Structure to design on (178 residues):
């Protein structure tokens, strides 16, 4: 029996900004069904790593593969098509739209009829979002906005979800639930 290729594999990845190298020779392998955390000091390159995997920062050397397919030079749009999503650090929602509208916007690339049912399932998982579904996203607390942004990514039914600072502003109980 042939083993499945890793969900994500980085081989000797180098990346950075203009003349500032940030990642130097990163090797990483993630298997299906695993949760992996990258821990480091501010400025260590955690966000750059996620942006490089997602195609927002180009790798200057090395290879990035998703399920055996080379995605080193793939665009962010191609990443979304493959089911790879990024929840970046900071606020990335639509503050003048309701929670529900934000979830619908999160699903804008989906072309199936199950979006409404999937949003209901997210409401079942994150009751706070159901309670605040008619509130403007900009009126939510920082932790509530973080949860909304993760739900916006989850509604896409990702095969690989990259989350920068996933616990930022969340209570310990909500961190566990996420």
């Amino acid at each position: 029996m042939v083993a499945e290729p890793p969900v994500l594999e980085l081989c000797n990845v180098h990346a950075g900004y203009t003349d500032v190298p940030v990642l130097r020779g990163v090797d990483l392998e993630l298997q299906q069904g695993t949760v992996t955390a990258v821990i480091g000091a501010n400025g260590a390159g955690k966000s750059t790593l996620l942006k490089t995997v997602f195609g927002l920062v180009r790798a200057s050397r090395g290879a990035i593969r998703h399920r055996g397919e080379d995605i080193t030079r793939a665009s962010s749009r191609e990443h979304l098509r493959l089911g790879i999503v990024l929840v970046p650090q900071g606020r990335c929602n639509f503050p003048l739209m309701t929670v529900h509208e934000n979830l619908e916007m999160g699903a804008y690339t989906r072309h199936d009829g199950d979006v409404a049912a999937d949003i209901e399932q997210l409401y079942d998982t994150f009751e706070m979002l159901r309670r605040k579904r008619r509130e403007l996203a900009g009126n939510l607390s920082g932790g509530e906005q973080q949860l909304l942004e993760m739900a916006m990514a989850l509604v896409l039914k990702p095969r690989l979800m990259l989350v920068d600072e996933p616990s930022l502003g969340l209570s310990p109980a909500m961190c566990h639930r996420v």
